[in-house]
Every structure is written in structure tokens, then in C-alpha cells.
Amino acid sequence: MKNDHVFVALLHYPAMDREGKIIVTSFTTMDLHDIARPARAYEVGGFYIVQPVDGQRIVIQRQISYWLSEEGRRANPTRYEIVRLVRLKYTLDEVVEELKRERGRRPVLVGTDARKYPNSVSYAELRDRIERREEDFLLLFGTGYGIPPDMMRTFDLILEPVYGAADWNHLSVRNAAAIILDRLLSRNRC
């Protein structure tokens, strides 16, 4: 089923370092490809990379441009297909404004984090809302040591953390994004 009312954003800013200071994180090629893949597999409407540093944006845009070029498409048609979902923006506000313009309504902002917040929603609750198709959703993933708590509190919803078999839940953003998309959008039901 097409989930074109669900979008993903990877935030390089604002992010936190291990001491809780606000920083800008660097782009990694793996994040582009390994989040775009599940975004395509679960047929989301788009994958945004939020990066405000121009030097980083040049690197990201070069990669996007190459994989969308005829040469890139011939070299790896699958990569071409996933990179078509990727959009580069300076700020989260730009992402929200673009979605409002294109979709005619503001998306529900859904924060993700390894920490639990008092107002966290379960996967079942969010999946039910997504399946009703009455709203658009923007799933927000942090880099570094996550999205700052003050910003998390501004989101409409905060998704409960990904829990494994034990208390340890320090996954890469790539792993977390794939697991979360699967739990929310998969045809497999546990």
C-alpha cells in the first residue's frame, strides 16, 4: 500500500552532542542510502535531509545529483529509484512549509528518540492514525545524540522508543528508521 501521506526527515540540526550541547552533525552517505531504502520499501511520500551547513549540503547535493543523472541511473537503477525520494532542506521549518504547500495541510510532527517521554504514543496508536489516512505525518529522526528535548516537546506526537529484548536501545538512526517504518507501515502484523 502506498503511504504517500507519511514523510521522513533526518535532522542534522538541531542535534545534541554527548554532553547535551546543541550542535550540527555531519552528513554520512550511509544515512542517505540506508534510510532512503526503507522509505522506498514502505512507499513513503519523501525523505528529507535537514542540513544547514553549505559545505555539507554541497556533498549531499552531489550525491543526489549523481544518482539522479543518466550515468548514475545506468550504474545502479535501484539507487536511482531510492534517491528520487530524497529532498535537501536547510531547516525543519522549510520541510513543514513545503509539505503544507504541496499537500494543502500541515503534517503531524512525530518525534522519535531512544528516551521515553511522558506523552509518548505507542506504535499501535500511531499506526491506527496513519491507516485512517485522514492526516499527513512527518517522522523526525535525530542524529548525534538525538533531537534536543526542548524541541521534542514542540512536536505533536512523540513515538515510544524502539525497545529490543533488553534495556539497551542505542541503535544507529539507520537501524531505528528501518525498524520504526516497519512497525508502522508493514503488511506483516505481529
TrEMBL record:
The keyword Methyltransferase applies. Residues 6-185 form the tRNA (guanine-N(1)-)-methyltransferase C-terminal domain. GO terms for molecular function: methyltransferase activity. InterPro entries: RNA_MeTrfase_C_dom, tRNA_m1G_MTases_N. Keywords: Methyltransferase, Transferase. It comes from the Bacteria. GO terms for biological process: methylation. This is RNA methyltransferase. It comes from Aquifex aeolicus.
